[in-house]
Design goal:
The chain is an alpha+beta fold. It is built from 20 helices and 21 strands. It folds into 3 domains: 112 residues, DNA ligase, ATP-dependent, N-terminal domain (DNA ligase i, domain 1, Orthogonal Bundle); 193 residues, D-amino Acid Aminotransferase, Chain A, domain 1, CATH 3.30.470; 130 residues, OB fold (Dihydrolipoamide Acetyltransferase, E2P) (Beta Barrel).
Amino acid sequence: MSEAHDNSFLAFSQVCERVKSTMSKNMKIRIVSEYLKNLDDENLKVACDLFSGQIFPPWEGIELQVGYSTLLDILREVSGLNDKILVETIIKHGDLGEAAEEILTKRTIRPLFEEKYDLVQVYARLRKVAEVTGKGSVYEKKKILTGLYLNMTPLEAKYLTKVLTGEMRIGLVSGLIIESIAEAFNRVFDEVNEAFLLINSVGETAILAKYGKLSEAKLVLLRPTNFMLAESMQSAEEIVDYFRKELVCEFKLDGVRVQCHKKGDVVKIFSRKANEVSAQFPEIVEDLLKIDHDFIFDGEVLAFKNGRPLPFSKLQTRLQRKYVDEKIVSEIPLMLFVYDILYFDGEPLYKMPLIERKKVIEKIEFTGRIECLEYTLVSKKEEVERKFFESLELGYEGLMLKDPSSAYTVGKRGKYWIKLKKELDTLDVVIVAAERGHGKRAEIFSDYVFSVWDNGALKTIGKAYSGLTDKELLEVNERLKDLAIKDEGWRLIVRPEIVIEVAFNGIQKSDRHESGFALRFPRIKRIRDDKSIDEADTIEKVKAIYERQKSLEGERLNK
């Protein structure tokens, strides 16, 4: 394969193919870093964003609105092949990108004049596709994309399709892209990673790294940064022994975590996926506008009535709607509980100790449906246990215990914030396949095979079929059919897109699953539409729970 010039989409595709073909993490980094250092600024930014599987920033709310059927129509038109060959090829590969490569090698149609594209030119056309709306938009989208495909090699078609479907699957997780940027421009990994977590754009981070301006990365109002993450521990004793100091103790809320930004008279609310969700919470936006300051809050929205939280399923009803009317607002009342602050009136506060950030929040006048989340200071096991049982009686999930001297570590999971919940633990997993149920569920796909991350790949760890309501099962069934990449009749292989939270009775080693582990009696707690698949749990967490479980079993045997 001859190498294309660096800025071309062909060169990008060749690099993707080389990365995909090696299992070595170091080799992946070397291939990508050598490629990145030779790109101009515009193409560097686009390349990094496409490597990450992200065409447009999620907070912009821009979507291509190009489905599988549209792509199938385009492949039919540019190849001249009949439907039978197209469908057989797609089923054979189980991946539309891989299928597109083979389809274009068999094509009978070629353009009179071939045109080659830089990455920036491809990106510009994809933005045009996203901007086309209304009557006749499907025709216009097809026209733009058909023009691209007609001028592409089979390899380019493969990776254009992967970009369009959001299924790169080349084993290049965001951490490896950051390492590649650091190596390409001879920067310290931690500095590159910190800038990325703060500004939430791998492409912009690459530009800062190239010019040695990583220290200029900063919080930007009305643009989401990454949330600080918590670890889990299983007992009050374990937490107290670990910290050996006074801790901030809060009730663990079972709602939707949000980041609230206000600049002047503009308010935006973002989810953990960095999507804007302001339209789902109009009454919260209204009350945030009454606060006479600019800010970035971290907090949780709960369905809340008569002083108690309502089940998460009530809140989910609102999340599934693009727009919320007055009827929904009155039927499912909300509260926003603010528990952290990252920015206030021109000053970034995330490096300030937590207890000082709490003092800033306490001075703000909240009204209506917004409150500062109450906290207490605890240092003894008995105090933690007392607060834990109080939280359960009031309808909460458990406790959050936080180091009062800790900074807000953007995007990082560390032992500064600890979750204490009533169950052994739960895992956030990704549905990768679905099987038909039994009895009255025989007509729907209700048994979900799910995976966790292992070194950049999703590995199966179990199957669950209980926990969802009949209504939720029907909704998920329709979503899974839309996500299907291979239909085996009784079983669908699906694009990894849906995250679910599963509880279980234990973990055991197993050769039945790709991960080497299996969950005992897994059951679905809820659908986590607020989480992207990148936020699903890893094999490291599975192993940690497994070891903790073995330790607890050993303690019981020795008593």
